[in-house]
Amino acid sequence: MEIKAEDIKVSFQAKQVLRGISLNASKKEFVGIIGPNGSGKSTLLKCIYRTLKPDCGAVYLDGLELERMSVKSSAKKMAVVAQHNYYNFDFSVREVVLMGRSPHKKMLERDTAEDFRIVEEALRTVQMEAFADRSFSTLSGGEQQRVILARALAQQTQALILDEPTNHLDITHQLRLLELVKGLNVTVLSAIHDLNLAAAFCDRIYVMQDGRIVSCGTPKEVLTPELIREIYQVDAEIVRDSKGNMHILYT
Ligand code: ADP
Ligand code: MG
Questions:
Q1: Cβ 38 under 6 angstroms from ligand 1
Q2: Per residue in 65-101, is it b (16+ CB within 10 Å) or e — as a string?
Q3: Could you tell me if the CB of 51 is within 6 A of ligand 1?
């Protein structure tokens, strides 16, 4: 699955939040979006996962314009782990993950044994199977995030959109989630807060600042002391560990 955004612009009242964003993630590529708070990462992702309609520009999935696709057919191609997940109703964990199956069903079609099998497997994958009957709203932020990932896994798509998916997670679960996502071998487009995680997992990174893309390339190309200083106003050193992996030290 290839994701492409072309010249996306969004304004809220007088404020232009996205000033013409173009990017792409090719098949099975893990693409990160970094940038300071308020630079427009979530707004851009919302345009891609159809929660927000851009003022101008277009999003394409495998060359098909999103606007011309039904919500159901785009949901078969692309799953989302958003930053905040609220339900107005008290769903159980299992019911939340079952929602991932709905794009694959006809209207009013019942959940099948196969659906339940996929849901159980997704819950096992994120190590939340023991929570299946718990009410989603009683879970911690990190547990909720893993359940939402299970919902995305149950959706069985070739593309995943993630908005700071490791936000509420401890370091073990941060690494586990990103390794799991990487191992799916699907196209991933993810806003990532932590530059070291971005360096470790992304094939390519886009850097956003003030509604624009200001840099793009491999982690090695993009994550330089100069760029980090310019974007985040902090001094940093790039070092290599004993395995040759790059790390950013804030000095
Ligand atoms: P990021 O995810 O990079 O932190 P966001 O995309 O959430 O940034 O926000 C970009 C800017 O747009 C921020 O200044 C934010 O306050 C503003 N913004 C986002 N959503 C809305 C909205 N619904 N109404 C008004 N301003 C918004
Ligand atoms: Mg955000």
A1: yes
A2: ebeebeeeebbebbbbbbbeeeeeeebbbbbbbbebb
A3: no
Q: Which residues contact 237 (CB under 8 A, 6 or more apart)?
A: 225, 248, 249, 251
Nearest CA among 161, 126, 157 for reference residue 144: 126
What are the tens digits of pLDDT across the range 29-88?
999 999 999 999 999 999 999 999 999 999 999 999 999 999 999 999 999 999 888 787
Residue of 146, 21, 5, 174 lying closest to 81 (CA atoms): 146
Quick one: which H or E segment has residue 205?
strand 204-209
Q: Over the stretch 39-52, which tens digit does the pLDDT of each residue have?
A: 999 999 999 999 99
Closest ligand to Cα 46:
1
**Contact status, residue 41 vs residue 10, Cβ threshold 8 Å:** no
For ligand 1, say whether the CB of 37 is within 6 Å of any of its atoms.
Answer: yes
